[in-house]
Amino acid sequence: YDEKKNWEECLLICKAQIEEQPDKGLLYSRLAYFNRMLNKYDEAVKILTTYIDKHPDNSQCELELGHTYMDMKQYKDAVVHYDRSYLIDKSENYGSLYHKGKVLMELKQFDEAVVCFEICILHFKLEKDYNLAAAKCYIELKQNPMAIAHYRRALFIDRECKEALDALQDLKADKKQILN
């Protein structure tokens, strides 16, 4: 039902599973996700905050709450919950920092966003998206050599990465224009 995007059916199945396993955080995270897919954001927030109040160390629910606030464009709340997800288990949840960085980019806080992406890269060097996101921040921060380095890393990971190729061409053209 998930693949078919039959969210209503997914809700019913998930609720039945919660009755059988009431302490399984992943099920509450999924239930909130299905509500989010139906644009029932308030219901998703209620499900997650209720569960988190009883189980404050559930990183999955914190992450889903961050996604919910992101969809609601409540960026500052999203940052809080992405941070909490990461802090619960830094070695497993570094991906939460990627989402936090994306939110910080929305808030035009590029200096803080790039730190998130660099930490993600330290954890997992072979993720093209982390490098692309960092490069975009460095462009905004007017640190073109760092942007170039990250676009090149993205190309090392995916030799056909159109975004990196296009960005490097643009940077090359900008440099020529400045020299002329």
Walkthrough of the structure:
By secondary structure, this protein is mainly alpha-helical. Helix content is 78%, strand content 0%. The protein is built from 10 helices and no strands. α2 runs antiparallel to α3 and α4 runs parallel beside α6. The radius of gyration is 19 Å and the shape is elongated. The model has no long low-confidence stretch (mean pLDDT 93).
Beta percentage is under 5%
How widely separated are the two ends? 59 Å
> Total number of helical segments?
10
Q: What class would the helix/strand composition place it in?
A: mainly alpha
Largest sheet: none
Pattern of helices and strands: HHHHHHHHHH
Low-confidence stretches at least 5 residues in length (pLDDT < 50)? Answer: none
Give the overall form.
elongated
Topology, please?
Blueprint: H1 7-20, H2 25-37, H3 41-54, H4 59-71, H5 75-88, H6 94-106, H7 110-123, H8 128-140, H9 144-157, H10 162-179
Helix pairs in contact: 1-2, 2-3, 2-4, 3-4, 4-5, 4-6, 5-6, 6-7, 7-8, 8-9, 9-10
Describe the structure using short key phrases.
180 residues, mainly alpha, 0% strand
